[in-house]
Amino acid sequence: MMEVMPELLAQLADAVVALAPERVVELARRVIAEGMPPELAINQGLAAGMRRMGEKYAAKECFVPEVLLASRAMYAGFEILSEAMKASGKGLVTKGKVVLGVVQGDIHDIGKNIVKVMTQAAGFEVVDLGRSVALPDFVRAVEQALEDSGHDPSCQAIRSCPSVVLGMSSLMTTTMPRMGTVIELLDKAGLRSRVKVLVGGAPLTAEFARRIGADSYAPNAHAAVEEIERLAKAGIEAFRSQGIE
Amino acid sequence: MDRAKRFAELVKGGVPEPPVVFPMVVANHAAHLEGFSISEAVTQADVLGRVLYSAYRFYGYDLILIFTDTMVEAEAMGAEVIIPEDEDPFLLSPPRVSKLEAADPARDGRMPVVLEATRRLRKLVDDEVPVLVSLKGPFSLASFLRGIEGFLEDLLQEPDRAHEFLRLATDNQARYAEAIVAAGGMPFIGDPVASGSMVSSTMFCEFAQPYLARLVRVIHEAGVRTGLHICGETMHILKEMAATGADILSVDEMDLAAARLVVGPDVLLMGNVSTRTMLDGTPGQVAAATRVCAASGGPRLLVSTSCDVPTDAPKENVRALIEAARGDGA
């Protein structure tokens, strides 16, 4: 019987917010030594810390340098805890796959990188396509993610077909419309109904997201993770409604 | 229409009639207007000069801005830049920098292209219109050379290293600014990474403002005025931007009335019709947005866009901005 020590989880979250990787590492080792479940420490320790950073950033209580250092601290603990999970033969149970990328012609990727960290902390597996991603590459990556998830159109069990979410961003007015093009390409490839699409980036609006046919829009990294959680759940609900359990 | 005279009056503190208007048309939009690809315009001085001159003649706005991309200086200092056929150039990430030393503006990277285009434009327009030339702010240049994320982390963890990059970047920009002035241009500072979306006002004060102030002094000593454009949110760093001594503060999308309250009645603001409206809006929407800017920014406003005019923004929208600013068809 593994004992859960709530104060250790709170300390982990605090250490992420304090931008203290050494402290995070020390606490992660203690989690393992105490025999606590590593996934709990990831979800309720590290991810909770990153969530707080996301909230602080959205409230302008901290800025990008602090968020970047918090993510370094988060990763330091994540590495140790996920290793421990692998070693125990459990492997990482993910809430689903998230494909992320900045559209072609746009190299502003800091926001995307922050969303990546927070999404991983929240328990998703992230496929990071990088910046200035050629539009067909998004479609290929979505197709691959669906395939890797054992996700086929005749999916019979939710367990074997976790949700796939595509997150695209653009920081330039000129490249924004390209996200709409990717959605059209997904449609042509017959994949649109099997993936949820989230878009973000400074010049975007919810109205623009609707117009290009995205499922959702997030104004900042914190909201992006909340939307990804919501979309992943909606994906599962969609299967349930088709009678797949 | 005495463009140079009206601009001089505006930066001196006056309110010229008709007002000075400049939708930020740069190399990419101008290239497409003339049937060139972006890569041709940003690598060849004759094409760059020609397309910017043609765009100026075509639209009839009141300034010319030579801006190719944000990477000119980093490239000249040894960073490897990718120049796609018809997209804006960009830096490899993480940056690959071969030597990292101050550039020779007459020789390194595409600085000679920009300087030659400046001389050509100056000859073409004589003294009828100011020719602004984009100059990267030290904070942005340092971040490109170091890698943006690494640089932002240094601000907290290794401030000495950050200051070292900033000093090198400032020295480089001082030299380039003097070369721009010698070629007949007016350096116009753009510092996109020193944005309020990235850093706090405390960090801006420590890492961006003093170096910008030094650069502004160098430009003033060379005998010309200068402006400062910062992208993203800038409300909480506007005062600090003004304290750099820059003659014009150019802002991204924000409420100009609120900005005016922060900086006071005399500071010359520039902006800020949304580039989204320029790309997607109708001429009527652009005209309406322009009138909102003019009314909320007050008389000490250089009417412009929130950032550069998108490459393929409709010509009618650029025209609509200019006409609305001048009060035509209102």
Textual characterization of the structure:
The complex is a heterodimer of chains A (245) and B (330). By secondary structure, chain A is α/β, with parallel strands linked by helices. Chain A is built from 9 helices and 5 strands, in the order ααααβαβαβαβαβα. Chain A has 2 domains: 6-87, Methionine synthase domain (Methyltransferase, Methionine Synthase (B12-binding Domains), Chain A, domain 1, Orthogonal Bundle), CATH 1.10.1240.10; 96-241, Rossmann fold (3-Layer(aba) Sandwich). Chain A has helices at residues 6-17, 21-33, 38-58, 64-87, 110-121, 135-148, 177-188, 206-211, 221-241; strands at residues 96-102, 125-128, 163-169, 196-200, 216-218. In chain A, helix 1 (6-17) packs antiparallel against helix 2 and helix 1 crosses helix 3 (38-58). The two termini of chain A are 30 Å apart. The mean pLDDT of chain A is 89. Chain B has one domain (3-325): TIM Barrel, CATH 3.20.20.210. The mean pLDDT of chain B is 95. Chain B has 15 helices and 10 strands. In chain B, helix 7 (138-146) packs across helix 9 (159-182) and helix 9 (159-182) runs parallel beside helix 10. Chain B is an alpha/beta fold and 330 residues long. An 8-stranded parallel beta sheet of chain B has the order 1-10-9-8-7-6-5-2. In chain B, strands 3-4 form a two-stranded antiparallel sheet. The interface between A and B is medium-sized, with 25 and 28 residues.
